[in-house]
């Protein structure tokens, strides 16, 4: 990752086919488009590959999450349990639905701790939203059990885990709905785009309408469509879908590269006793976009992260990162929005002002993370492995 490292002839060909017809919109203009339907083709390709019945493309991963929330009926007064370690888009989508984000601890899998989820359930809980962070999965068996026992919706934020799987099923296809992001730094990218995946026909029909102003898409042309419910414009364009289609066909290659590289990087650290690795609930299903390492304590991890940065490795120390961990989400903690929240939501959000997550802190502050690039040669991989080991050893 990211997929843009492997842009080439294939992406250009798909885009040019769209440019030749001049029909940049995914709906309508049936005659003028001369049989070119890139968004539809990409939806079918995703559905085929992942063995999921329905796919609705959207303009971004955030739009996909927002669309899924609406299609699942999540809104005002509903609590959505989600991890305190994720990308900001996860809570943005909950807030945009008018629902209440209930943040809970993660465990050493860097995803939702099922015990913390259980403890957070109230009569207002409507959904659990695991985030398959950094390419690997949450404990979906445990979370599905909790959903079943408590009659809750499972919405997978699989935006960072395209192509990952859990016990033989692709991430994003296991819950009531799942979402992907194709933003510019994701495994498969089309600059901006996303997808809602579901096996539930009603969730799909609602996603299809919601992401296009509520159109039912049943009329002979757009003007003849009815609007059974309100929607917004979260449509993807044909240009974006065209890039996505070429990228999608490369997914298996990307996964193979990432998995091979990760194996080599991990092997190079085997003989350092202070190193342990992220817990992965199903190793075979890791999409291997990142390598996460735990060191014995915060001081060592911070030192190692600095050394990695100094030697030019693409690394993250999430404890100090502004985008992915609660500790630095000041705008969220302080409820700083441009327009007022509904009063009940505003009151709920106040608790985040001085909230801390000591259990997650103690995990994240020991974690260093390295991005796995797609365009590394064998020599590059050997060089990165050498530098990674040296950086860690210098910190211990
Ligand atoms: C990237 C991402 C999103 C949102 O995707 P955009 O396409 O950038 O809107 C949502 N959740 C997670 C975990 C992400 O990493």
From TrEMBL:
Record-level GO BP terms? polysaccharide biosynthetic process
- The highest taxon in the source lineage is Bacteria
Keywords annotated in UniProt: Aminotransferase, Pyridoxal phosphate, Transferase
Q: Offer one Pfam family short name for this entry.
A: DegT_DnrJ_EryC1
> Where does the record place the modification N6-(pyridoxal phosphate)lysine?
186
Q: Name one GO molecular function term.
A: pyridoxal phosphate binding
Q: What is this protein called?
A: Putative aminotransferase
Catalytic residues of the enzyme:
186 (proton acceptor)
Asked whether the keyword Cytoplasm is assigned, the reply is no
Which organism is the protein's source?
Flavihumibacter petaseus NBRC 106054
Family note: Belongs to the DegT/DnrJ/EryC1 family.
Instruction: State whether keyword Transferase applies.
Output: yes
